[in-house]
Amino acid sequence: MSEGLRIQREEEYEAVEQTPRLAPPLTKPEVPPHESAVEGTDVEISRDSELIGHSAGRRRSRNFRSKLALTLCALSTVIVMVPLALILFYIVYQGAGALNLSFFTSLPKPVGESGGGMGNAIVGSLILIGIAAVIGVPFGVLAGTQLAEYRNPRLSWVVRLMSDILSGVPSIIVGIFVYTLLVLTFKQFSAIAGGVALGILMLPTIARTTEDMLRMVPDTLREASLALGIPRWRTITSIMIKTAGGGIVTGIMLATARVAGETAPLLFTALGSRTWPTGLDKPIASLPVQIYTYAIAPFDAWHKQAWAGSLVLVLIVLLLSIGSKIFFGRKMKRAN
Amino acid sequence: MAGYLATNNLSASFGGGVQAIENITVEIPANKVTAIIGPSGCGKSTFLRCLNRMHELVPGAKASGEVVWDGRNIYASGMDATEVRRGIGMVFQKPNPFPLMSIEDNVSAGLRLASGRIGKAKIAEVVERSLKLAALWDEVKNKLHKPGGSLSGGQQQRLCIARALAVQPDVILMDEPCSALDPASTQKIEDTIDKLKKNYTIVIVTHNMQQAARVSDFTGFMLSKEMGEPGRMIEYGPTNKIFTMPERKETENYITGRFG
After folding, report:
1. Over the stretch B17-44, which tens digit does the pLDDT of each residue have?
2. How many domains does one find in chain B?
3. What pTM value is reported for the model?
4. Contact A133/A254 with Cβ under 8 angstroms?
5. Chain B residues touching residue A225 (CB < 8 angstroms)
6. Does CATH number 3.50.7.10 belong to domain A100-335?
7. Does A102 contact B at CB distance below 8 Å?
8. CATH at residue B78
């Protein structure tokens, strides 16, 4: 910038100081160059090839490392996928043969008789999952809401810690806990006891996904709602939870899928049964326990049934996971 | 008058004891547009958010002093923040329509969720009136069921203005409402502001001095001496005077572009 121009501009500004403008400045006042220029810009800003790494050797080693990392990633992906694919393939291979309509509709036959199915176990599993959801979903969603929306640091810290510990507790321990709490108290194995055990196992997953999903809702929406004079609880239920709804439902479905396959906590809560469910206060059959019983029995026919049961269980879990993905995907599309 | 606001020694801080604004005492006249200008970080937005108790939503944030609205101090114990916000609405810097709601539902959200049961006919009437006031009706009247997010940025902002108007506040606070918008949309919002001041008191924070000069009747200039220092109201008065014969040197420096 030339010296002459600079002086001229300074004079302009002195003039302004003496006689205030009469009209609002409608054009943006230009900033005098001597104020906008950053001091010391005469430092040479040439590219330093040593820093940027244009040398051929550096480029080669960088390319090599990049390729190595990519290869490792691809390899790991394959290693992760192979067991899953093998398990699915083997279950279908072994189970599909024993799968027919009567498997879904009839009771297990006594040893020695052919045919029969796991109808009672499928219904039983659905009932257990239902009870678990009735317990796990409201408490889980409310706990997650508390963590995300009511920012009480000390309480949140405790709740989060508890939920982390709970998600790490082996499911059999939860089973023993419910056994002591309900089965011993009422002197009765029951569907309710099994459902409670599964419900407790669902809690941490649902609470944490709810918290995460609520945190993903932009603060601006909360503010928009509160600024309209919408009360806090209404903001949470009608704006926040609704907006995060897709993600929360996904979390619920994933938690459900996880507990659908739980066996250990059911062994001494729901116990198992060879008849159709007769009441929530009675022992009840479930797919995982039935599979377990059949798989360790010394009869070939039962092994076949166990495979078929496994296939049904895997299909239920797959359906839940895929369903949640589709549901979440649609919600997200609507949100954008 | 219901739209009259006055602050008395209003100070506000954030968590960790960071003082954002200090001892601001101004009177904001009813049915006028008051602009708050000043460089970044001078506490303009914090000041605005103190006027309807939005500031306290930030964890750890506190406000002290008085804001008198309709003869009552909104910070007095027993004042309900929800009621304050219903009477003193707000439009934010970035348009923030509710993403899962239609245009219509966005406008009526405040009514439906804050005021309990209201008849459908009444809601439709308020939606139409609010959208007309926000100069958006003609553009959306045939797609009221489309999601609010399907509109352009400028339309979304006018939707947010309509949404704020629907609960029939006395005062509307606008926090840099045009900073994310193109000039044509800005023009429309400014026209809307001009129309609205007949019935509403408007306080607008803006980075844009020309905008303040164009739309406002009164202007307040805020400044913090240094980074980290609390912002103060350096000068407050009729816009004409602030922009032509400011009393304070700092104001003059700012509006002539000397700094900031």
Report:
1. 889 999 999 999 999 999 999 998 899 9
2. 1
3. 0.78
4. no
5. 98, 109, 113
6. no
7. no
8. 3.40.50.300
